[in-house]
Design brief:
Structural class of chain B: alpha/beta
Radius of gyration of chain B: 26 Å
CATH superfamily of the largest domain in chain B: L-asparaginase, N-terminal domain
Number of helices of chain A: 21
Largest sheet of chain A: 11 strands, mixed
Number of strands of chain B: 24
Number of domains of chain B: 3
Helix content of chain A: 25-40%
Number of domains of chain A: 4
Structural class of chain A: alpha+beta
Oligomer: heterodimer
Shape of chain B: globular
Chain lengths: 638, 447
Amino acid sequence: MSKVVVDYEKLGLKVGLEIHQQLSVNSKLFCSCLPELFKEDPEITFLRRLRPTQSELGQVDPAAYFEFQKGVRILYEASRRSSCLVEMDEEPPHAINMDAVEVVLMASLMMNMQPVDEVHVMRKTVIDGSNTTGFQRTAIIALDGWIVVGNKTIPMQAASLEEDAARKIGTQDEGKTIRYRIDRLGIPLIEVATAPVIYSPKEAQEVAFAIGKILRDTSRVMRGLGTIRQDLNVSLSKGALIEIKGVQDLELISTVVEYEVQRQLGLLDVKEELYRRGIIPDVLKAESIDVTGVFRDTKSKILRKAVDKNQKVFAVKLLGFAGLTGRELAPNFRFGTELSDRAKFWGRVGGIFHTDEVLATYGITPQEIVMLQTAVQADKGDAVVFVADTAENAQDALKAVVDRAQEACLGIPQETRTAKDDGTTRYMRPRPGAARMYPETDIAPQPISAEFVNKVQTHLPESAEKKLCRLGKQYSLNEKLAKQLIDSEYLGLFEETAKSSGVSASTIAAFLTETIKALQREGIDTSQVTEEQIGGIFRAVGLGELAKEAIADVFSWLSKNEGKTVQDAVAVLGFEMFTEAELKIVVERIVASNKEQIEKRGKNAFGMLMGVVMREVRGKASPDIVAKLLKEAEAAQS
Amino acid sequence: MCELEGLGYRGKALELLRGADCSVGDILEISSRGRVYEGILMPRFGAGAAIIVKLKSGYNIGIEVTDMVEIKRLGRGAKPAFVAPLLPKQNPALPHVVIMSTGGTIASRVDYRTGAVRSAMSANDLLGVVPELADIARVETEFVFSIYSEDFCQRDWSELALRVAKRVEEGVDGVVIAHGTDTMAYTSAALSFALQGLPVPVILVGAQRSSDRPSSDAATNLIGAVRAAGEAPFAGVGLAMHESISDAAIVVHRGTKVRKCHTSRRDTFQSVNGLPFAVVEDRVVMLSEHYQRRDPSRRLVLRQKFSDAVVLVKFYPGFDPSVIDFYVAQGMRGIVLEGSGLGHVSRVCFESIGRAIDRGVVVGLASQCVGGRVNMNVYDTGRDLLGLGVVAFEDMLAETGLVKLMWALGQTDDTRQVVELLRADVAGEYSCCTLLREGSLHYRGGL
């Protein structure tokens, strides 16, 4: 699908951002456990069921109730280092982590927000198992601020302090048990929300970047994949308000917004087309039919496996949908994908088949398709959707498919969607109704005194302009390099390394900006190398254990060899430096074997000899020492 | 007292809110430090003077009251109420179980308007919230009290015993009592003594997490309790709670041999010096071999009187024996001493203890160890205490001993008869031998 030129202003695009980032503090938000994840097998597991409770309005969230009725259970995994009884919901929360409050306060003040006088922790109902309690604890720290991005002032609605959720590890027992790891649960997060005043995909990305930079400027937020998450609220004037959760990569934001606009426009087209065809919700019946017989002798591997397992194939007719299920809404994303996502969520099935796709790919024969169409009484103008699973799951799935098809006649359903790595989004759950937020009665209100605010205010990190000026002066960096450093993730590391490693500041700065970018373009996953490791590389250079020329190679090797040290890299890559004595032997050998040339060229032979020696010892010897030894050898010759 | 005061506002905040004619639930506009906040006025609990408003986003914040604060009422707020859920259909073929509610976490919910945890759920609400109960039993609900368990006293045990007896005599298949967990084991002991010869199970049940939170243990506990009340082969008073921190098995402990052992965990209740009655998952599996069988033809004997002239005194190094004299002077008729080890208190107490017994006060001795049996024949101290007329409580829990002495003194004024009652096994509070469990002190559902 080619990119379309879209007039976002005319479409009435409005985007609001919610940026979440983990804070770099010593313990979790409501207990003293370490904010770290574990990879080993869990030391502790326990099983829970979460029961939907009534909201203030006496309503029960339908998605939550559905999951519960299906008997979904959650198996939690924990380690003793990262979780105590608080995360297990076996003990009330301890007092709020004031270091975390301070970081959020700092970021709020940098975004010109007004701190609240008293912090009240709230419970936000979340019943998918990601919180052992069934709610997420969250509190507003400051309100009503602004930041300037480009020439525009972006109003900031609020900065909150929240506990991060448990990590979903997988499912088992045909989807009836969900496994979550509670190591991440309780790690403090800052959430910053803008007003919905962003009008283009590009602007969304710029604002997200600007907020991310302010958060980094606090130097109290965590770095790396999984520590930052952007949620987007996207709406078109003729479309719907869609909440997109969990965009991890900043660079992806504009693509996500573009694709969402495309998806909404595509769905509006589908609606128009259905209207022209005279299809209204009422004509779409959720009458799924057992068509297992059609596939009794099928050669299709997927269906064969299901039938052999004694599962059923069910099918449903979507009246007048021929050609529409295959309609592309975004790259590799069809209307059929929307149907499939619903089927997966409500029916716990692996996926669906529909007659708008090339079914031969799955080994389904034209004859089987005809039999299928006959079984559900579909003609050319209809689409048939079918699915193989247990009878219960298959029927739930097809009911969800018909529900979604009915919604398509009306327009775009309001949904919470989740972002994929390619920028497309998938159905996550229905948008929650009225905010189900009620007070966390186990935690006393926390006053924010004027003294506390003043203390944070007077210690705010320096602004970007001041920083630029200082970097120029202190490290003699040119403006371009200094700017790049400020925009990079490595400013703190740069200053530390420039002061302590003995390597020149411009070498370090160039590596941390230009070289790292170049390596990323070559496909190196630079996030795999820790700041500690990078610091180690420069310390090795400073001590003369590693040549400057070998920095990039050592870095690349470390990115591919988790848990190894700089010394390992040097050893494996053969970058041990020549000692002066070893080098002397090389130099003398080369001088001896080039006697004729030296005599012929006289003093001009030096450059040629330097070239020959360096070719042999590059990355293992400093050019200065080679030059010195070469001069000594020449002197000895003459 | 006006509503605002009752809901925690005082001083300048109260004055301002009154001036603007505001009450809790109203929509306000508050200006402070150049910012304007719009939200719903919330009540204030505990310390602090800030005005609490709920913003449109659902978040609460506190706004400090200064001279610069201005308040305007924008509208009267609607007051949301708890909508009782539809009650499930009852199946007449299932056992008839009455759920009585007395209060506590299991019956509490947050008042969304005020944020306070209230004992607000009737047994009917519980049934609406846990509709699966209708698949296990024909459930009827009865409201008894709405009190925190720490506020229970002897009068409440008597009242509860009367109410249970009435339903049992009507022929129900079992009774479940929703109770606060703090003193639930005292109540289970009290009912064990008061309801003798029970033909059916009477099961106390509680929750460590309030039932309005998705992760509450209330539903699982309640389902286990109702199943035990309706289906279990034993009769008598039991106490049903989580076996572990998982929402899986529910253990039914014997009413006289159970203690709350953890301040917050779901599996806080543990059987001490005896096996639990049963464990409940999809069905009831008996763990104990010694129990009275369910028998609807057996006649219940109700003995619901308890004396309130009994104290529990814990011995510790340096204990001042004049404490005992004080209680005697106060007119106490029974004293349970929680002694050390096998059942000892310092010799400096002997004189006071002897004086108390001479005046007709009944003195019992239990151990402050978590498990094991009192044996006062091993050391001189023990033998001397027995000589003074102290009653050894064998392997009975100190709390159960306290309740039993209250009960015994409620039955008779004759000290000799009281001592006889204390020595007899009335409701499974004594076991004849202390069983060794494999490995350690721990076994399923017990210490």
